[in-house]
């Protein structure tokens, strides 16, 4: 038996309208928006308003006509690390710099 959560007349509905589609949120950012965050997160997750990306990191997915869009990789890493101090390098960029072999040997040496 599945339990369906309705967001009518609940604090989860209030929280839902404060979330922006396409954004990622840390639990610590949402604490001030709710009196009972655990219950409301459970309701928002069950109704698929939010998706859990990682422990304490949630995505408010953005809808397009083909379905849900994946989160922006830069936003995802920024939220996960809780910092702007990172650099994303594509495999093509590593190859053009001649770093592909160096990085793979460093990873294998661990």
How would you describe what is shown here?
With about 110 residues, this protein is an alpha+beta fold. The mean pLDDT is about 80. It has helices at about 10-20, 25-30, 35-45, 75-80, 90-95, 100-110; strands at about 25, 50-55, 55-60, 60-65, 65-70. The termini are far apart. The chain has a three-stranded antiparallel β-sheet with strand order 1-3-2. Helix 1 crosses helix 3 (about 35-45).
Keywords summarizing the entry:
alpha+beta; 3-stranded antiparallel sheet; two-stranded antiparallel sheet; 5 strands
Number of beta strands: 5
Helix content: 40-55%
Query: Structural class, judged by helices and strands?
Result: alpha+beta
Please state the average pLDDT score: 81
- Count of helical segments? 6
Form type: elongated
Distance between the termini: 47 Å
Order of strands across the biggest sheet? 1-3-2
Helices, strands, pairings?
Blueprint: H1 11-18, E1 24-26, H2 27-30, H3 37-46, E2 51-54, E3 57-59, E4 62-64, E5 67-69, H4 73-81, H5 91-97, H6 100-109
Antiparallel strand pairs: 1-3, 2-3, 4-5
């Amino acid at each position: 038996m599945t339990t369906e959560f309705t967001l009518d007349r609940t604090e989860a509905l209030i929280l839902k309208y404060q979330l922006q589609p396409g954004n990622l949120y840390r639990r610590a950012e949402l604490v001030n928006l709710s009196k009972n965050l655990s219950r409301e997160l459970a309701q928002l997750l069950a109704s698929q308003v939010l998706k859990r990306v990682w422990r304490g990191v949630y995505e408010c997915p953005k809808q397009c006509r083909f379905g849900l869009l994946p989160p922006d990789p830069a936003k995802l890493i920024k939220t996960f690390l809780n910092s702007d101090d990172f650099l994303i390098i594509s495999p093509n960029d590593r190859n053009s710099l001649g770093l592909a072999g160096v990085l793979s040997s460093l990873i294998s040496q661990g």
